[in-house]
Design goal:
The protein contains 7 helices and 7 strands; from the N terminus they run E-H-E-E-E-H-E-H-E-H-E-H-H-H. The protein is an alpha/beta fold and about 325 residues long. The strands form 2 sheets. The protein has a 5-stranded mixed β-sheet, with helices on both faces.
Amino acid sequence: MASRAVPSVPYERVPSPPFVNLTLSSDNNAPSGCHDASNYLEPSYHHIRSAGLTPPEADIITHKEPLVADDTSPWAYTKRRSAQRILDYLYLGPTAVLRDVDYLRREGITMAIVARDSLMKSHRFLSAERAQQELGITTEYINLASTYDLVRAFPAVVRLVNDHMLQVHNSQVQARAASGQATDPSTLRRGKILIMCESGNDRSAALVIGYLMTMFGCGMFTAIRLVGSLRFCCSLTEEVKRTLSTWSDILNAQTDVANDQQQRQNEEDRVVVESVEAMQVADMERHKRRIDDTEDDEDEAETDSDRFHGRVPFVPFTDPQ
């Protein structure tokens, strides 16, 4: 019956965004200098200016530790209920993980970031309150009204993670300095952040991917592939992938602007330094007086220098004989 149906009027499908095809090959859109092996990724300074960081601050946060995805480890379906370590200081999982106080204590989690629907922002999160009371874990909430709010959430999460890591580090350095103890960076306790959503597979996964794109300077495909290899149950919709593509464009634009501003500042500083040096040289030349300055160079005969010839030492006062 359906094969005999004919349209009453001509029609066509509503235009839709193109499908984002994820491949297993290397990311051709990754910035230059990005170590883009299939299961290995190193921290990069490429986007740190757009994140408001200096290279020393980035080193404090990442410890220059690479992301290594072990593809040989078997994935069990039950692992979706637990959290996976993406970086040595960043974990990804469902909100149910906050109920496991022993796990939080064992892993040393110091901060939790919960991505949730904005309709739930007025509800109490009892697991987070218990974790804060028993372990002192700080909880931050990212309220999302729609998938496209992720674009606004990416820089907020990057700032939350980095600020927390620096705060944990600096508080220990200041405490040891106040007590007169020497600071050995290898003995300092590291902050550890757990990023979660209801399932741990979509919103929170997108936030972790966006963080990797910022701090490791990699492209969207590389970050998705590495996070997916560590938490195999991640499931990103086309809308989520498009927000990540948008974040990649924003990062590149912010980095270009930050680099241009830095180049202009460097040029202005160079001009100022050269001007100061030129003024110092001119000032020295102006105050430097030589015997040649007293000679009259306009006369053809050196008559001006004749007055110095034949002079004998003159002593205005002498002792009586």
